[in-house]
């Protein structure tokens, strides 16, 4: 019996020169900053807050252009006038809506019992509102003269009060914008000075340890134990009344930084204590690097992300401190405009009940503080390598 042998098909051999080279995927290492940004983007509230804060801080540079009127411009006929709603559309004769921004004029009557003027909005008298309109003259950055405002009434003699008017007929919306410049900047200046003091003293405390650490920690405990209200009462009484608003502004910023540096100093000290035994720090000691170089070139860069988070969370405390002191009359005083100074007009229960829009600076403070806290939480979570 003859067995059939199966014939196998010969394989086609491809020459090595004709084989297509498959490129290997390149893995580009991400920097620490890029990794922080990727983790920060997952914090939705922090991302939205950052989008809100950036235009808010940028707008403080162009307040004169953004505000529809100067903060000191008074109108005795519109004392405690209520807010006017901005309407974007109006109907023509055929009943079709068309884009025409406007507000409604006031109709005023005198209440003889309470001896005050009562305002109501007259929907038959629209006041056209436009962009890039001519108004009161100003100097942008102190030297650029102009009278162009971002928005305002087409007729400068007509009133536009988006957030109402105060006891002198001044525009509350414009005053809140001007107050943001001082309140937001005093937080940055105060935190900047606190950061310098905290890094120097906290770095020395954590780097050297021993009796130097004990001495600095006792100074921190003494500073934190000082009662703030009696301290500010004494400072307010010691400030000369002849000082200009600029001098008072800088003195308040310096005092806030001298009181608020202790928290940042303890954060720096704790980080230094945890990393001063790392291999790269010991190696820097071994090759004879001076202490200043080790602190500023090796130790501080490893904690930049934590410092940014600490600074972001410290700015709200500075803003709240300035607001509280100015509200109590112990901080900034008119004619300086800050959110705390503006809230001095809302100290009376009668004013709050009859003109609740005078609390608009408080709403601005709440929104800003929440946004700063959300951003600080996002940065702190993004800087944590174990999250």
Which properties best describe this structure?
387 residues; alpha+beta; MetI-like fold; 4-stranded antiparallel β-sheet; 13 helices; disordered N terminus
In short:
By secondary structure, the chain is an alpha+beta fold. The chain is 52% helix and 14% strand.
Topology (SSEs and partners):
Elements: H1 32-41, H2 44-59, H3 63-66, E1 87-91, E2 97-111, E3 116-140, E4 144-153, H4 172-208, H5 210-225, H6 228-238, H7 245-275, H8 279-286, H9 291-299, H10 304-327, H11 339-343, H12 349-354, H13 360-383
Antiparallel strand pairs: 1-2, 2-3, 3-4
Helix pairs in contact: 1-13, 2-13, 4-5, 4-7, 4-10, 5-7, 7-10, 8-9, 10-13
Please tell me about this protein's structure.
52% of the residues lie in helices and 14% in strands. With 387 residues, it is of the alpha+beta class. The chain has 2 domains: 84-160, no CATH class; 175-383, MetI-like fold (Orthogonal Bundle), CATH 1.10.3720.
Low-pLDDT stretches: 1-7
> Could you say what the CATH topology of the largest domain is called?
MetI-like fold
Q: What is the SS-derived class? A: alpha+beta
Order of helices and strands: HHHEEEEHHHHHHHHHH
How many strands, what sense, and barrel or not for the largest sheet? Answer: 4 strands, antiparallel
For the record, the CATH architecture of the largest domain stands as: Orthogonal Bundle
Classify the beta-strand content into a percent band. Answer: 5-15%
In the CATH scheme, the class of the largest domain would be Mainly Alpha
Principal-axes geometry comes out as elongated
> Which value, in Å, is the CA radius of gyration?
31 Å
Fourth-tier CATH superfamily name of the largest domain = MetI-like
Q: What strand line-up does the widest sheet have?
A: 1-2-3-4
Helix content: 40-55%
* Count of distinct strands: 4
């Amino acid at each position: 019996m003859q067995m059939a042998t199966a014939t196998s098909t010969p394989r086609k051999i491809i020459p090595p020169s004709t084989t297509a080279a498959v490129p290997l995927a390149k893995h580009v290492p991400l920097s620490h900053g890029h990794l922080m940004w990727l983790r920060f983007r997952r914090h939705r509230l922090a991302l939205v807050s950052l989008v809100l804060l950036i235009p808010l801080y940028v707008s403080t540079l162009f307040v004169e252009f953004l505000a529809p009127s100067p903060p000191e411009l008074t109108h005795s006929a519109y004392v405690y006038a209520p807010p006017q709603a901005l309407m974007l559309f109006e109907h023509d004769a055929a009943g079709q809506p068309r884009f025409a921004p406007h507000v409604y004029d006031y109709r005023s009557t005198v209440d003889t019992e309470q001896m005050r003027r009562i305002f109501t909005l007259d929907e038959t008298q629209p006041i056209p509102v436009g962009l890039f309109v001519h108004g009161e003259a100003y100097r942008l950055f102190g030297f650029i003269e102009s009278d162009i405002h971002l928005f305002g009434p087409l007729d400068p003699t007509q009133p536009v009060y988006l957030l109402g008017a105060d006891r002198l007929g001044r525009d509350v919306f414009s005053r809140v914008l001007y107050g943001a410049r001082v309140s937001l900047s005093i937080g940055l200046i105060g935190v900047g000075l606190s950061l310098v003091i905290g890094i120097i003293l906290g770095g020395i405390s954590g780097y050297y340890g021993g009796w130097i650490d004990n001495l600095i920690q006792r100074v921190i405990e003494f500073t934190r134990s000082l009662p703030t209200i009696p301290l500010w009462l004494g400072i307010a009484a010691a400030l000369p009344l002849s000082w200009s608003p600029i001098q008072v502004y800088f003195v308040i910023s310096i005092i806030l930084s001298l009181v608020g540096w202790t928290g940042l100093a303890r954060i720096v000290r704790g980080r230094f204590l945890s990393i001063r035994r790392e291999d790269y720090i010991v190696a820097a000691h071994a090759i004879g690097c001076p202490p200043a170089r080790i602190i500023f070139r090796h130790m501080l860069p490893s904690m930049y992300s934590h410092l940014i988070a600490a600074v972001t969370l410290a700015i709200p405390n500075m803003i709240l401190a300035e607001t509280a002191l100015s509200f109590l009359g112990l901080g900034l005083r008119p004619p300086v405009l800050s959110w705390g100074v503006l809230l001095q007009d809302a100290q009376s229960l009668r004013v709050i009940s009859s003109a609740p829009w005078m609390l608009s600076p408080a709403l601005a403070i709440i929104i800003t503080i929440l946004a700063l806290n959300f951003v600080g939480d996002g940065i702190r979570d993004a800087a944590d390598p174990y999250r």
